[in-house]
Structure formats: C-alpha cells, structure tokens
Amino acid sequence: MSAVCACSEKNGFSYCSIDEVLQKYSCDGNAIIPILQDIQENLGYVPKDCIEYIGEKLSVAPARIYGVVTFYTQFRLTPRGKHSIMLCVGTACHVGGAEKISDCITEELGIKGGETTDDRLVTFEKVACIGCCSLAPVAIVNGETIAKLTPDKTRTVIAELKAD
Amino acid sequence: MKKPLTVRIGLSTCGIAAGGNKTFARFGEQLTARNLAVDLKKTGCIGLCYHEPLVDILTEDGHVYTYGAVTEDKVPTLIDEHISGGRIVHDLLINDDKSKVTARQVKIALRNCGLIDPDSIADYINEGGYTALKTVLSSMTPDQVSEEITASGLRGRGGAGFPTGLKWRLTRQSPGSPKYVVCNADEGDPGAFMDRSIVEGDPHSIVEGMLIAAYAIGATEGHIYIRAEYPLAIAKMQKALDDADEHGYLGEKILSSSFSFTLKIKKGAGAFVCGEETALIASLEGKRGMPLLKPPFPAQKGLWQKPTTINNVETFANVPWIIREGAKRFAAFGTAKSKGTKVFALAGKINNGGLVEVPIGMPLREIIFDIGGGIQGGKRFKGVQLGGPSGGCLPEEELDTIVDYDELVQKGAMMGSGGMIVMDETTCMVDIARFFLNFTKDESCGKCVHCRLGTKRMLEILELITAGKAAAEDLALLEELASNVKEGSLCGLGQTAPNPVLTTLKYFRHEYEEHITQKKCRAHVCKALLQYIINEKCVGCGLCVKRCPVDAISGERRKLHAIDGDKCIKCGRCVEACKFDAILVE
Ligand SMILES: Cc1cc2nc3c(=O)[nH]c(=O)nc-3n(C[C@H](O)[C@H](O)[C@H](O)COP(=O)(O)O)c2cc1C
Ligand code: FES
Fold first, then answer.
1. Domain finish residue from B379, B407, B424
2. Prior bond to B296 cis, omega within 30?
3. Can you give the residue range of the structural domain that contains B272?
4. What chain B residue is nearest to A102 in terms of C-alpha separation?
5. A133 in ligand 2 pocket by Cβ < 6 Å?
6. Number of domains in chain B
7. Which residue of B62, B386, B487, B575 is most buried, as measured by CB atoms within 10 A?
8. For residue range B189-248, what is the model confidence (pLDDT) as tens digits?
C-alpha cells in the first residue's frame, strides 16, 4: 500500500479507503453487503456519493447498490453524531417501558429515533432487540449496554454525553 | 469447606450489561494483588439472567458455589470471606434458587452454556466435544447419519418444526453440486435470545453440528448468518472457527478422512425478513432479502441455485449430543410428535427472566410459574406471547396448554423461536397487537401487496382504537383484513403477521371493546385515553410544577394543585416526581 494517499479527499471522505475495501473483496459483485459494512465501519456511514463509484468498480448497477443500502436498516446514508444511543424497542423492552425511555431521550435531545442532533453530538437510533431481553429496557450507548433503564437513569446518561 | 480452585464469571451479553466485565477485572486485580492461586475463567450465560453478574466459585471437590448480583463493589468481600476465609457469603449465594429453577430442566442444546469457556476449544473437547464428529467420520455412512437424526425425532428449532433428518436426506438426494450448509443465526424475533446465548456460550457445538450435517448431505462449504446486532456472538464464533481450523476440524481432509469442509461467517444487516430461509439465501448472495415462492425449497435450489440445508442454531447444537448419546435417549424426551427439549427465552413481567430448556410437552403454567417464578411485584398474569411477531398471545385460561409445535398452533400461537414474553395487568393487549403490527409493517419487504399495504391498514385501525377514535364496525374490518393478509402473502412473514391481532381479538376482545365504546384502557397504557388527576393527598409542594415540561400544573403553594387536561401531554413526569402518591392516572 502506498504511504501517501494519492486521491483527494472529496465530499468529506477519501476514495482510497473505499478502494482498500474493494480490494479486500477482490471487487466481487456478490460481496456488496460485506463491502458496504466495511465502508460504514470505516466512515461511520455510506456516503451517497460513493455508491456510483462502487457500482462502476464492481460492474453492478448503482440502483442495485442503492436498493441494498436502503433495504437493510443497518446502513446509514448520513454521517453519525459523536455519541450514539441505540435504544432497544423489541417486545420485551416495549413491555418493560421502552416508549417512556424514548420519549425521555426525545425530550432531552430534541430528536426522534433515526436522527442526529444539529451539533452532531448524539445520534439516536431504535433497534429491535439486542438479545438482552431479561434486563429490559436496554440501550447501547457508545457500544456499552445499559440495562434496566429508567427515565432518571436515561437523563443521567444524556447529561454525561452533553458534558463531554 | 474445600479449597477454592476456580472463579468462573458469566460474560455473555447479559452478564456484561449487568457489569460483568468490571467484576471480572476487579477479580483479576485483587487475586493478583493478594497472590491467591485461583484460576479466573470466563464463561457464557447459564440462563439465570435475572441474577447477573453471576460468579461461580469451584472448589477442589467439584462443588460449585454460585453467587448472584456480584457487582464489582462486592468483589473484595467475596475474596476476603470465601476465597481467603473459607466462609460462605450467604447474602449473595443463590444455590437454592438455582437448584429450584434448574430442577425441572433438561439441558441438551444448552449443555455447555455457562459452564465452559467459549473461547477454549480445549474446554469443549473436554466435555466430549468433537467425539460425535469422529464417530460419524469413522463409522457411519452419510445416510446412517440422517437416519439417526430422523430416529431422534429432532424438528427444526427455528420456527416451522420441519423434521431435520428428512431435510438432510432431501438435500443429499437433490441433484446438483456443490451443496451447502447454512446456519440461521439471524434470530429476528425481538424477545428471543437463545441463539445468541448458544453462539456466545458454546460456539463449537454449532460448528460440530454443521460439520455433521455437511457430511450427511455431502456439502463442502457452509455459512453462518449472524445478525449484526450480536457483535459478541460474531467474535466468539470467529474465534471458534479459527481454533477449529487450527485443530484440523475444519479445512481439507478433516481428521484424516476424505471429508473436507470450510465455514464462514456472514453478518446480517438488520432485516427481520432475512430470517426467512429464501430471503436469507438472497442476502447471502448480496441481494436484497426478498423471499421467494416455495417450492423449489432450499433443499432443491438454495444458495447459488444449489441444494442447501438451512437449519437454526439450536437445531445444530442438538446434533452432536444426539450422535453421542443416541437417538433413543433424545426421543425419550418430548411428546408423541415433538421430541427432545426446547429452549425458551423468558422475558417481560416475569420474575426469573432468562433462558430455560425443558422437555417438549411441559405445560405453560409450569414454565412460567414454577421455573419462571411468576409475575414481578405480585401482580396478576394476563397473557403470554409465544413465537414473537408471527405468534400469538395466550390468556390465563390457556395456561395448561403444553408447549408442543402442534398444540400451540391449534391455540392460535406457535412455538416459533421459543420467545415467551409474559405480560401482566399493566400491559394493554391492544397496544401489544399494535406494537407487533407496527413491527411487521416496518419489516415487510414490500413484495406482496397484502403484506405491504394490508399490515399498514391494520395498523391504522389499531392506532385509531388506541387513540379512542375507532368505531365498533372497525373490528370487523380488522378481522377481514387479517384473513386477507394471511391468504395473500407469499412468505411466513405476511402469512403470520395477523396472528397477534387475531389471538388478542379472540382472547381479549373485551379490551378492544372497552377502548372503542368506553374510551378506556384498563392497563393505563394508551396515552390518549388517560387522564392525570391530582387528589387530596397533594400537599402543594410544587415538585410536579417544576417537572412539568408544558406548564400544565398550577396551584398556590401548600394548597391542592390541579392539572389542565388540555395542556397535559401525559408524559408521566409529575407522577415520577410526586412523593405523596397524589397524582392519579385514570
Ligand atoms: C419472517 C420469518 C422470519 C424467520 N426468522 C428466523 C430466524 O430468525 N431464525 C431462524 O432460525 N429461523 C427463522 N425463520 C424460519 C426459517 O425460514 C427456516 O424455517 C429455519 O431457519 C429452518 O431451520 P430449522 O429447520 O432448523 O428450524 C423465519 C421464518 C420467517 C417466515
Ligand atoms: S427486546 Fe430489548 S433486548 Fe430483546
């Protein structure tokens, strides 16, 4: 790999990092999902502008890639906030009061599920079950699972994120 | 008391969420600092999630002392008292409760979970792991393997309950090569977590099960499709694959036989419908996960149009045990048509939330009350949702129903993945139906019109009901739509999506009617139908006034306050704030 990235950083991301991922999968058109997963892991999202580029490299119609990106809830087309709150809204968490927690997050941050605060501080997402149902309601905050949430506990967590 | 030799800490997702990693780190520090020669071991989930973080202390005579709720602050006491002092810490000891909960269970699929270190292939081998593979490769023909599985009566644990041995034979007999084995670890049912637990706690049992399946059907390549929401499971499985490879259980000429097999992980990308086998295969091929019409079944035309066996995690985990212990022993458990055991995930308003594995045929009552410990806070049981968004909700009168594929379907529910969400009087059954419909509407892939639009229309009616805006005839329309969606959908998602609505309508119709005619939600869940009222217990402290985000509460200091119903957004903050129980919700 070359030491210095030759390509310019357009649209806030470098095509080099995308090339690397494409090479890892030998530009295999059947590996669209893992390729997109890797890109998202590197950049935090799948930039809309790179879809056409990937399509060209994989000889796959951009529409098909766009179809995959929008079909699977994992993929995001917009950059994420610095912190992430993933609230589980699965059955056990719903029965355990996840809606109250969701209302509480919305009140504290002024954003709904799927949105990022204007200052890009926090992204709030809703997911269906993280497999911790016996400790419901649960959320994953910056990768760490927080169990048995209450509105008070939620406010404390958010205050900590805001203080950062 | 005998000398403590090993400290074993449960570090599955549930253990970690409860603070298990900190407990583990604390033990590490303190044992080293005090120079104590005790082994520190990680393990998976033993199923007693409500006691997490769990710590086992194993003594040299093989006795296991199990401590519950061992947060990091409790570590020094446990070390001082039990490990250094040889005195049991009775406040934290849960051995009695553990034996009560496990007495009625039979652990086959979960045999190693919470006992071995999932990262250690040596631990797995020590428990008899990979001996079934050796038996199969050295002394059985592929057909004998399928026959043995058929004789055990094992049926698919992913929902539909198709006989596993038959599926393998059909795949073997289908023309075409190469053939594939796929493990379905997509676990889409929100509220079920047994597959996660097995992958995190005993990944080699799945690898061995898949190897045996591959031998039986003549496959050389396999895939494990794990949902992306389970990062720990993915890591544990990757470690297992690497170790199995290194030890010669995967790759070319396994155990010096002529059998070769490679196995790879594919990460899901968050779509419930991808748990459906044909959609899963489309996803493996890098496409959108849209189900296809069956037949052809995957056993005929699956991955890349080749014969493919696709089984659930729990199904595979049973396989090595059956080969090792014999089909007869497995078939000794269960009912006439459903053999063996099934893992259930207990969650919701139940005391002992966690995983249990019981012989098929046990009555729901025994699982929920005798093993599950009944309802939290002494409240009253109202219903149990079985089989997730595709399943149904059974009331108290049906608690003597036994868990068995066919019995449950007859009652309108289904075994599904084995998720059991227990609900009490504070759960609104209309809201639950709305919740599931909202889920299936979101997760419908959009291919079939009935599923795409029918679920949306059904949801709209349910929203009207929970908002107190529905008319009596809307129930008939809801029922009509439900039967149309069932009939007009191609895959199991749409065919079963109306089940939660139909079963709640069947068993809890009075709740629907109350919402419609009396504008009342007896569980106090449907916000639009609630009223917040301050009673005479109010001392006028003003705490609620400060907490109310919309200034709906007013009153003079030290006098009875009042809530303006027009302004109130029913957020419940005043109730949280009030120290005098002065705010009523009606
Ligand atoms: C909408 C839908 C979702 C499903 N989700 C899962 C799942 O998450 N895990 C699973 O093992 N099977 C799931 N299934 C069942 C699979 O289609 C398939 O029957 C199963 O993987 C076969 O394995 P088994 O015979 O071992 O049960 C789902 C089916 C439908 C219709
Ligand atoms: S439903 Fe929330 S973790 Fe499973």
1. B424
2. yes
3. 121-331
4. B571
5. yes
6. 5
7. B386
8. 999 999 999 999 999 999 999 999 999 999 999 999 999 999 999 999 999 999 999 999
